[in-house]
Structure formats: C-alpha cells, structure tokens
Amino acid sequence: MSAPQIPNLLSLRGRGGARGRGARGRGGFASPAGPGSHDTVIQGTDTDASVSRLSAVDLGYLEDPYARYFVQQNAGPPTRRLPIINRGTYTRTSALDRLVSTFLFGGNRGDGEKRQIISLGAGTDTRPFRLFSRPETRGLIYHEIDFPAIAAKKRATVQSIPVLRSIITISSELADGTWGNQSLANESSYYCHGRDLRDFAQSTPPSLPGIESGIPTLIISECCLCYLQPSEAKSVISHFTSLVSSAALVVYEPVRPSDPFGRQMVSNLAARRIQMPTLELYPEVTDQQTRLSEAGFQDGTKASTVEDIWRKWIPADEKERVDQLEGLDEVEEWELLAGHYVVAWGWRGQGFEGWKDL
C-alpha cells in the first residue's frame, strides 16, 4: 500500500502547475487513477513510490544502492521530483531510519537478544536490504506484509537481481503466499507475506509463519492503515500487538484535513476514488498520539510533523548539505507540505528505552 497524490503546492498558491506530485507514504507519488477498484489504485501507487525514492537517491539526499532495482527502466532519464518533495522524502526517511536504528542498535540491547520488525503495507521498500547488508545487523526477524500482487512483484524483482538475491536468497515459498529465508547471516530471518491487511481485522484472523511472540517487536505503518476503515485499522493494530508482549508502533500519515491545503488534498484524493477514512478520526497531531495511547502503548507516545523533524532532528551541517543539493526557494510551500504529515510512535515493554530521548 502507498499514499497517492496530494495537491500541487504551487497551484494552491496561484503559481501554476509543476511536474512534482506531492508526498506519499514511503516517499513516492501517484499518477491519476484509471479504471479499477480502490485496491487496484492503491496497489498501483507503489511504482510511483519507487520513482520518488530513486529521485531522492539520484540527487544525493539519501544513500540507497537498492532503490534503482525497484524502478522500471523505461526510455529516457529517471523522473526528478520537485525540491520540496525530495526534501520531504529525505526527512521522513531519516526519521524512520533513526527510530529503527535506535530500536535495533541502541545501547539497551543485550548480547544475543533478537529483535523483530513487522512492516504493514511494505510495498517495494528497500529497508530490509539496507539493514541485512549491515554487518552489525544480527538476530533480526523482518516481516513485510502487502497485497499478494505486490508481494509477488517483490519476489520476482529479488529473484532477477543478483545483488538483491545475494542479500535475501529465497529459500522457501509457503502455500499461504509467504516467501523468504529463515537462515540469513547473523541468525536473521526474512518473511514477505502476500496478505490483505483487512484479513487481520476479522474475528478469526490468519496466522503468519515466523512471528515470534517473546521478543521486542516494532510495527511500522507508512501511510498504510489510513486506507482502512477506522474499526479495521484498530483491529489490525490490536491483532499484531496482541501477538507480542513488548511492542511499538510507528505511524506516518497525513493530518490536518480541514484547513485549505487539507481540504484540497482530500478533494484530490476523492477525484481519484481514494479515501483515507482514518484521516477524519485522527485529524490532528495530538489525535495520533492519543490513538497510540488508546492502543495500549502506555510506556510512551510521541508525535512530530515532518516540519518539526526537519527543524529539530536534522543537524545543522546536514541541513546545509541538503540545502546545497538543489536549493529551496519555496520555503512557505515546504512548511505547508511538511506540516501536513506526521510521524507518531508509541511503545510498551522492553527494548525501546532509547526512544525516550528522541
């Protein structure tokens, strides 16, 4: 799953159109939706996500040697996104990477202790390849869940690219649509599950192979749960948190649908037959934090807009480096865009002590 097109910031301010298409959950953009169901439209945005990630990589915002393998190489140069969009991709990725790294490599981790990540609506995310290629990654059990068609697409890509195949050699394919490798280096494992997340909101949800209940587990939703009905999203969160005693959830979603920008964003989504039901239930940053508290993350909850993360998390020298890549004339537009996306995180149990200082 992935987030679709948002309003063009320049056109909102009366300055005409542009080729950039707005931020999406994992760093991509959606083309106008053609015929097909809502699910088909959502699945189709993953291609745009990959293109947007590659734009940020090619321009030097991010280091990701695996991004190019998930973009179809057509004739002509790769698509280049607007500077404010590339900065948004960079900032959101930096925030998620910091949370994940603190969880996996923080000083509170004991020798030989395993960690688990469950990524909801993972699409063609490259994070598992980036993590498994790091020599310090050990004892990591990584699960990705997405529609069967998306999981199959990722499997085909991994099989066809030697460098990807060298990191995650496909050693098993289970009957329920799961593929992966349970014997990676440093006692790590990878599972890619082809499942509709709504299955886990049912009264009798399916079981997933490889889930370990006794280890700290980080659940990630980057613009994924927002496509579900609120009751379904709550049930999905409840299902996965019920599987483990020590759990955390990171959510990246749009907010503030009621101001002029937000209303235009919702209107653009509706024109493409795309709805984000949870946006109405959690419209403000504080609502996202309350959402996590109500989900049982009693040890701590925090939330920051992408704008706040850029100001507070990115060091001054790194800001200067990013500024020099393209320059950013539309500062007000950047603040407007970045203020409408939030990263929220909550935790309970052992394994997340390092998050208290973030």
TrEMBL record:
Keyword annotations from UniProtKB, A to Z: Methyltransferase, S-adenosyl-L-methionine, Transferase
Q: Name one GO biological process term.
A: methylation
Listed SUPFAM superfamilies: S-adenosyl-L-methionine-dependent methyltransferases
Q: What class of enzyme is it?
A: transferase
Pfam families named in the record: LCM
Residue ranges of the region described as Disordered = 1-42
Q: Which residues bind S-adenosyl-L-methionine?
A: 92, 121, 196-197, 222
Query: Does the record carry Manganese as a key word?
Result: no
PANTHER family on file: LEUCINE CARBOXYL METHYLTRANSFERASE (PTHR13600), LEUCINE CARBOXYL METHYLTRANSFERASE 1 (PTHR13600:SF21)
The UniProt function text for this chain reads: Methylates the carboxyl group of the C-terminal leucine residue of protein phosphatase 2A catalytic subunits to form alpha-leucine ester residues.
Name the family the entry cites.
Answer: Belongs to the methyltransferase superfamily. LCMT family.
Q: What is this protein called?
A: Leucine carboxyl methyltransferase 1
Q: Which organism is it from?
A: Neoarthrinium moseri
